[in-house]
Design goal:
By secondary structure, this protein is α/β, with parallel strands linked by helices. It contains 13 helices and 15 strands. Strands 1, 2, 3, 4, 5, 6, 7, 9 and 10 form a nine-stranded mixed β-sheet that branches. Strand 2, helix 4 (83-90) and strand 3 form a beta-alpha-beta unit. The two termini are 24 Å apart. Bound molecules: pyridoxal-5'-phosphate (PLP).
């Protein structure tokens, strides 16, 4: 079986874990927590990192600290894993769904149009004319490692007084190589960035996440909330409602060993991408997606665009046939504005997302994927074309 995306444990993971076990530091404190936060910050040139049990809890804390609350609204893409959408509801707020652009990221042009035509700047904030609610924030998601059009998103946010929380859970290591954010990493552009270290992400701690910010006060507050809001940890005084979201030292030890390999992982991802591209180039009806110009992605996922008329099979049909050949592939997420809990929420001119949803199939992309396996996948695709 060639899996879609699995962990690659080939660095100092055993050594770091052993150190935790030998020294008895296995729980919510220990040296790897700080070391892991520092190492991630160093990689992406960020000031502060706060570890959490997963990316979703990071998003929750980041939105909470951005002032999102009861009956507010938050702008989210419809095409994304559902986590950033659900988090809006955890806070009693409502998502407003946006379409995607040609790289499956939140469409910044449509966002601009939405804010200009459908909203009104008021003293209380940006008011959605249709719902009467105040929009507090935007959550752009750097889908599959593709950096979003952050220069336009940040401009809109500034004009409309919106907070921006980058969901960079899939894009650790992706950066801009042109424009005003040249040499800046995804997750470090806006008020908050969030990384995930779930098992399918580019590096993993089993489960885990990190909140990134350059604001010292907010970082402190984030840490406070993730550690049960302890105002006095000896006498157990809590002036606010906190959360038990802290990662363990065991997981941080894994993360510390993994982040050291990130650059090497990205290199492998890039090489495999180039190889796939080469091997698939003459198959009619199949195209491997490119990446936004002016960006250096982490090549987390490889997306095929399948034209059923020319290829003979839809992405769904190809997925089933490849599975019978022991090759695991996946369609993209069902669009969130059509998910049962969100059908009554506002969705603004969703068009491209529907197109992508019908056509995209993600193919095996693990960093332990070898050349022979890439060839097995591409040959199977070639063979299955009708
Ligand atoms: C993985 C992922 C998350 C959530 O991360 P967890 O660590 O699994 O909670 C959030 N958003 C997107 C887009 C993701 O892909």
């Amino acid at each position: 079986m060639i899996p879609l995306s699995i962990p690659n444990i080939s660095g100092k993971e055993w050594d770091c874990l052993k150190e935790c076990l030998d020294t008895n530091w296995v729980s919510s404190s220990g040296s790897f927590l700080g070391k892991f936060e520092e190492a991630v910050c160093q990689y992406v040139h960020a000031k502060h990192g706060v570890v959490c049990i997963n990316g979703t809890s990071c998003l929750f804390i980041a939105l909470k600290l951005s002032g999102v609350g009861y009956r507010n609204e938050v702008i989210v893409p419809t095409l994304t894993f559902i986590a950033p959408v659900n988090v809006v509801r955890y806070l009693g707020a409502e998502p407003v769904f946006m379409d995607c652009d040609d790289y499956m990221n939140l469409d910044a042009d449509k966002l601009e149009e939405f804010c200009r035509k459908e909203c009104q700047i008021t003293k209380k904030g940006l008011k959605n004319k249709k719902t009467g609610r105040i929009i507090k924030a935007i959550v752009p998601v750097h889908i599959f490692g593709n950096p979003c059009n952050m220069s336009l998103i940040m401009k809109i946010a500034e004009r409309c007084n919106l907070k921006v929380i980058e969901d960079a859970t899939e894009s650790l290591g992706s950066y801009y190589c042109d424009g005003i954010y040249k040499d800046r990493y995804t997750g470090t552009i806006s008020d908050f960035g969030v990384y995930s270290f779930n098992g399918n992400k580019i590096i993993t701690t089993g489960g885990g996440g990190m909140i990134i910010t350059d604001n010292k006060k907010l970082a402190k507050k984030a840490r406070y909330f993730t550690e049960q809001a302890k105002d006095d940890s000896v006498r157990c005084i809590h002036n606010e409602i906190g959360y038990n979201f802290r990662l363990s030292n065991l997981q941080a030890a894994l993360g510390f060993a993994q982040i050291k390999q990130l650059a090497a992982f990205i290199k492998i991802k890039k090489n495999n991408y180039e190889l796939y591209k080469e091997e698939l180039k003459n198959i009619e009806g199949i195209k491997i997606m490119g990446y936004p110009s002016g960006t250096m992605p982490n090549y987390w996922f490889y997306s095929l665009i399948i034209d059923k008329r020319k290829f003979g099979l839809s992405s769904e049909e190809l997925m089933i046939k490849l599975a019978k050949n022991n090759i695991q592939t996946r369609p993209i997420w069902f669009l969130n504005h059509l998910q049962k809990p969100y059908r009554n929420n506002q969705a603004y001119k969703i068009e491209k997302a529907v197109w992508f949803w019908k056509k995209v199939l993600n193919i095996p992309c693990s960093t332990n994927l070898i050349v022979e396996e890439v060839k097995i996948v591409t040959q199977a695709i070639r063979r299955l074309r009708k």
